[in-house]
Specification:
The protein has a single domain, classed as 3-Layer(aba) Sandwich (Rossmann fold). It starts with 12 loop residues before the first helix and ends in a 12-residue tail after the last strand. It is of the alpha/beta class. Strand 1, helix 4 (about 50-60) and strand 2 form a beta-alpha-beta unit. The chain has nine helices and eight strands. It has helices spanning about 15-20, 20-25, 30-40, 50-60, 95-105, 135-150, 180-185, 195-200, 200-220; strands at about 40-45, 65-70, 110-115, 130, 155-160, 165-170, 230-235, 240-245. The chain has an eight-stranded mixed β-sheet with strand order 3-2-1-4-5-6-7-8, with helices on both faces.
């Protein structure tokens, strides 16, 4: 086998070495690593959640990532958005993050989309998974509708103050709930706080972003069934994880038929 990249249907010698700890893992193995290499994942938001989630997915060997964000890097971002440095202030978040991902792993392709997610972008064709790392309900609702309409799994994360949330949705599964089943028609005016208003613990977004990456790998390997219908809550102050179960809303205007 060549030491150069072997294409999408094989792993090169360098990739075998790079991903050796995955290949040794019985839940991943060579076949699973090849699935990750062939995967196309969209990450919506290149901030506190998107940075660690995308970096772990790049390190894990997810072959193609599309990063959505219309913002530029500010000094206040550096407290938690770990892909960025002081020298990056004023630069595009998505372009900077994509450059970092390819520096971290030259075997992956990171494509920046310098705009808010609309769900109509041609680059989304053939997407296998979406990670919602955004910070507003309008975007979250739009991402959810795209995923339901196109039967694409969704890993949603959120963090505020010292509290985090994580949930996996998969509209391909019969009777599976969606984001709207859980949160309804909540909008910015009805209590959608963000870290710019309420603050956020720096490592908290790393915890939730890393958990999003864990769930993303599980989805891509079709090992996520036990995560469906569960909302994970993390209280950093109390050092507590809690799991709440929920079901599809039969009256949901997005996913119920």
């Amino acid at each position: 086998m060549s030491t150069v990249d072997a294409g999408t249907d094989d792993l090169s010698d360098e990739e075998l070495l790079r991903y050796s700890r995955h290949i040794l893992h019985p839940d991943i193995d060579f076949e699973g690593q090849l699935i990750l290499k062939q995967a196309r994942v969209a990450v919506v938001g290149a901030g506190g959640l998107g940075c660690p989630a995308a970096m772990y997915l790049a390190a894990s060997g997810v072959g193609t990532m599309i990063i959505f964000d219309d913002d530029v890097i500010e000094s206040s971002n550096l407290q938690r958005q770990i892909a960025f440095t002081t020298a990056d202030i004023g630069q595009s978040k998505t372009e900077t993050l994509c450059r970092r991902l390819e520096e971290l792993n030259p075997h992956v392709s990171a494509k920046p989309v310098r705009k808010r997610f609309e769900g109509k972008e041609a680059v989304l064709e053939g997407i296998d998974l979406v990670l919602d790392c955004s910070d507003n309900f309008a975007t979250r609702s739009g991402v959810n509708r795209f995923c339901v309409d196109n039967r694409v799994p969704l890993v949603s994360g959120a963090a505020i103050r010292s509290e985090g949330q994580l949930c996996v949705f998969d509209s391909r599964a019969a009777g599976s709930a969606c984001y709207h089943c859980l949160y309804g028609d909540m909008d910015e005016a009805t209590g959608a706080a963000n870290c710019a208003e309420s603050g956020v613990l720096s490592p908290l977004v790393g915890v939730i972003g890393a958990l999003q990456a864990v769930e993303a790998v599980k989805v891509l390997l079709n090992q996520h069934q036990q995560s469906l219908g569960k909302l994970l809550l993390y209280d950093a102050n109390g050092a507590l994880f809690r799991m709440l179960r929920f079901r599809q809303d039969p009256a949901c205007t997005v996913c119920a038929h």
